[in-house]
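Hello forum,

I keep getting stuck at the same step: I have a sequence, I want structure tokens, and every attempt I make locally crashes halfway through. Rather than fight my setup again tonight, could one of you with a working pipeline run this one for me? It's a single chain of 214 residues.
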Amino acid sequence: MFELTDKRLLALIWVLENKDKSWSILELQKNSGSLGYGPLYNFVKELEKNGFVSMDSKTHEYRISKAIDVIRFISLARPFRSLESIPYYSSLDFTGMLNMINGAKLPYAFTVFAASELYHSYVKTDQVHAYIQEGDEKKWEKYLLSKNCLKAEKNQANIFLIPTKQQVFFTKPEKIKGFSIVPTPVLLSDLFSFGGLAEEQANFLLEEWLNDRL
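Reply #2:
Ran it on my machine without issues. Output:
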């Protein structure tokens, strides 16, 4: 199997979000804003070799052939629990924490249950996970402390901020009920790698996504 870099992830997000379309490598390069043409060509050939995409012999355009396998691969190559997170504690309930983070006027994107529960209520939880823009950590600290949140150990926290360089999480977020959500392929991958009830939720949302019902 191949290495999943940040730029390759960016390309895979675009391919997955356009799962019903065929595309050329040049189109993928222009729209995903990830790799240069040469490295992207080599990556697409690796995807083809692994059966993740296939090429039409007449048009020479590609199409994703195993969307589920690609999402599963991302979840294994980029396990959510291994990502750096900054833990805080808030006395607010789940909805209150969502509203508080949404009111920060800083880039964010909910993931795991904070995102999936907005699509489909399934898990009773008091944990909120949100990606934030790398470099905004101090701004978030100032904001959350002003809202009576406390820095906490992970086993005592209920807010987890995950810094990321992936601007696509913030420039083109999904919007559900007024909240910013990570791109659906990333949400599904995060849920699968989170495990337990999150994986059950992922299986339900995956079926909805594959049938264009999200």
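The longest strand covers residues 128-133. If your local run keeps crashing, start a new thread with the error log.
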